[in-house]
Amino acid sequence: MRLRYPQLVDVALAASAPLPMMAKTVHPKQEFFEIVTVDYKAADERCPDIVRKGFSQLYSIVQTPGYQASVTETFKLCKQFDISQFNHLVGWARNAMLMMAMVDYPYPAEFMGKLPAWPVKHSCKMMLEEMDRSGNEMRALAVGAGLLYNGTDGTKSCFNIYDDFIECADITGCGTGPEAKAWDFQCCTEFQLATPSNNVTDMFPPLEWNLDIASKYCEANYKVSPDPVDASLNYCLLTSLRPVTSSSLTVF
C-alpha cells in the first residue's frame, strides 16, 4: 500500500512480502537459496556442507540395489519408498530447510509447525549431533529436515511426505491447507517467484525453475498463465517513478 499509495499511507512494515524478489522475475537469480545457505552457515559453518552432502548421498543411493529399505528407514517414512517418490522426497527435505529459514524467529512459534526459537540453529545442532552419532550426512539431513514436520514435541513416529509437503508454483514453499492453495493460485497470477538453485552458490540440488515451467504448472492446475510484469507494474517495481529500491518508510 505504501508503494502504491504513498500519499495515503505514511509507513509500512512488509512481513513476508517478496516484492524485491519479484522485481527480478524476468531475469531470476539464485539469491533466495544463497541467503538460506548463509543462514545455516551462520549457525555453524559445517551445516551447509552436511546438507549438500546429504542430498548428494540421497541421489547416489537410489542408484544402488536395496535403496528402498535404506531410504525408508533413514527418513522414517510411513510408506515404503520407491523411485517414483524421489523428487517429492527431495522437495520435502528442501522445503524444510527453506521454511525454517523463513520463520527463524528468536522465540518458539507454531506458524508453520511447532518450532523452537531459532529453528535454523536448532536444526543445525541436530544435524551435527547426528553426524557425531552416525557420521552419515544423509541421515543428518533427514534429522534436520524432520524438525519442521515433527516439531519440538516429536509426536510423529513416521513421516508421510505427501501430507507434509505439497508441490506448488512457489518452489520456496506454499505450506499446507486452504491457505496454501490460495498462495499457490496467487503465485500463478500476481507473484512469480522463479528463483532456481544451483548447488554451487547454495547448498541445494540444482533445480531449474522459470516462467515457462511455472506457466505449464499453472495452466494444468488453474487454467491461468503467470504475467511476469503484472506485480512489478502494480507495485511500481520496474518503473523509474517509484522503484522499490528508492521507496521510503517501508521495511521489507
Keywords:
two-stranded parallel ribbon, mainly alpha, 2 strands, single chain, 11 helices
Strand ordering within the main sheet: 1-2
Percentage beta strand: under 5%
Largest sheet: 2 strands, parallel
Please write the string of helix (H) and strand (E) elements.
EHHHHHHHHHHHE
What is the rounded Rg? 19 Å
**Termini Cα gap:** 13 Å
Number of strands: 2
Give the class from helix and strand content and strand pairing.
mainly alpha
Question: What percentage of residues falls in helices of 4 or more residues?
Answer: 40-55%
Notes on the protein architecture:
With 252 residues, the chain is mostly helical. The chain has helices at residues 19-22, 31-43, 47-61, 67-74, 86-102, 119-134, 137-150, 161-164, 178-187, 211-222, 230-234, and strands at 12-13, 250-251. α2 (31-43) packs across α6 and α5 packs across α7. Mean pLDDT is 86; it is low at 239-243.
In short:
By secondary structure, the protein is mainly alpha-helical. It has helices at 19-22, 31-43, 47-61, 67-74, 86-102, 119-134, 137-150, 161-164, 178-187, 211-222, 230-234; strands at residues 12-13, 250-251. It contains 11 helices and 2 strands.
Question: Layout of helices and strands, plus pairs?
Answer:
Elements: E1 12-13, H1 19-22, H2 31-43, H3 47-61, H4 67-74, H5 86-102, H6 119-134, H7 137-150, H8 161-164, H9 178-187, H10 211-222, H11 230-234, E2 250-251
Parallel strand pairs: 1-2
Helix pairs in contact: 2-5, 2-6, 3-7, 5-7, 6-7
